[in-house]
Amino acid sequence: MDMAAGTVTRRGDFWAWRFLCTALSFALFGLGGIVLRVAVLPFVLAWPGPEAVRRRRARRTVGRAFWLHSQFMYRTGTVAFRFDGVERLGLPGQMIVANHPSLIDVVYLLGHVPEANCVVKHSLWKNPCMRGPVSAAGYISNDGSAEMLDRAADVLRDGQTLIIFPEGTRTTPGKDPVFHRGAAAIAVRGARIVTPVFISVVPTTLTKAEPWYRVPRRRVHVHIRVGDDIPVAAFSEHAPGPIASRRLNEHLHHLYARELKA
């Protein structure tokens, strides 16, 4: 019996090669985290200098490692990549807000803004591969406490750049991002400007529902686009903190719903 045309979907775009490089990427990521923790970061932190300087040095080291990993994925053809407006990131007191469609976007964003602080999920402090780098870099644990909000606001008031993914987890494919109000509350308390970053990953990969070995049939394209700065004062002026953060959060919801469909 003849098989109807179009019922068999062939894998293309060098699928076998991309599968191999994806597996190698995960292995290198885990091994790299252990090497940083055991052999690199202890020397970086032990090098003379004030604590703040040593912390920035460690953060640059971690960021450089992420950049090298992103280059590996790009150079091997595992991922096609485009970053528009990266030169506008990394300003003092700037809070970078980004949606979170895949594990890949964290690597690319931190790799291209290496001196930025970042709010990361609390479970990474229990991950044997990542707890060394995130601790040495002084990243902020997203444990949901009021102290976390205060610490993040202090980081911004101190003149650091802060990256935050307000969803708290990866975006559900096909749905608009849903932001928790904590990011807006941090911005109102300490940010000079909020800069939205719009991330698209097509086809979807490494979402919460997709294991690493489910490699898409065609190459993944990551597009990171920096949007226009949002002045925090426009929301916080003449309004108490809770109302200002709610207004800012609603603005971010509408903005991302519109821009990610464009």
From TrEMBL:
GO terms for molecular function: 1-acylglycerol-3-phosphate O-acyltransferase activity. SMART domains: PlsC. GO terms for biological process: phosphatidic acid biosynthetic process. Pathway: Lipid metabolism. Keywords: Acyltransferase, Transferase. This is 1-acyl-sn-glycerol-3-phosphate acyltransferase. It comes from Luteibacter rhizovicinus DSM 16549.
